[in-house]
Amino acid sequence: MNEASHELYVSQPALSSSVKELENELGIEIFTRSSQGIALTVDGAEFLTYARQVLDQASLLEERYKNAKPRKQLCSVSTQHYMFAVEAFVEMINSIKSDEYEFTIRETRTKDIINQVANMLSEIGIIYLSDFNKDVIGKMLREKHLEFHPLFRAPLHVFISRNNPLAGKKKVTMDDLKPFPFIQYEQGEEGSFFFAEEAVWPEYSPKQINVTDRATILNFIIGLNGYTVCTGIDNGDLNNEKIVTVPLDTDETMLVGWITNERAKLSKAAENYLEKLKSVVADHGYNLID
């Protein structure tokens, strides 16, 4: 007790009193006391194990946040399956000046994007609104204290194989596409049309394929001569020698934007990502929404 009081810069009676108060508060006896000194009880030994864990965690906190070295940059984004979102993520990473970072991008289902931003697993979520889904999605965002920030409005296009007989047309209709497999992103057991990534879909499609990732959908467009509905923004990942985008003859549009948690402040990396996102969209010829 003498050595402990010296280490803590307190008097021995004050330390003994503090230990006694702790024992009373926890309802256990940590030390046995005798004329020969003190010793740990069984409860005291167990308590000491937990106490050491707390001290170890406190040391980790100090090492993490009091270290003079610049902290590791962190950023997480959840998005529907948009190539421009990934393109902007690459540009963001290439632009940072940091020896350490940990970034996460998740291409996932619409409902998962909303939940991940609501639970602060992601700082930013990228989704679209349409006349069909805006009421349902908007209500869900309000209930989860999320804000939707419009980025750009996109006329609808389809991705089809360059070998598709429709590839040379200036516009295609849903009737034109009936003979071909309709490929859409699967939204899970709780999915509904309101969460669909495709802003329009055929009233009836005898050939329909549900997929979960972008690479698969592109392979099916080429290998099965299928199609999917999209914004029309492409990049090098699209493989322009095999896949083309063709405008869809419809008045429907997609209002693409990002969602954030109104109770969270964006990191510098997340703000950087948004700037790159705007730049990528503008470079593809779309007008940004202020």
Automatic annotation (TrEMBL):
Transmembrane segments: none annotated. InterPro entries: LysR_HTH_N, LysR_subst-bd, WH-like_DNA-bd_sf, WH_DNA-bd_sf. The keyword Signal does not apply. Keywords: DNA-binding, Transcription, Transcription regulation. This is Hca operon transcriptional activator. GO terms for molecular function: DNA binding; DNA-binding transcription factor activity. Signal peptide: none annotated. Residues 1-41 form the HTH lysR-type domain. One of its GO terms (cellular component) is protein-DNA complex. Pfam families: HTH_1, LysR_substrate. Belongs to the LysR transcriptional regulatory family. It comes from the Bacteria.
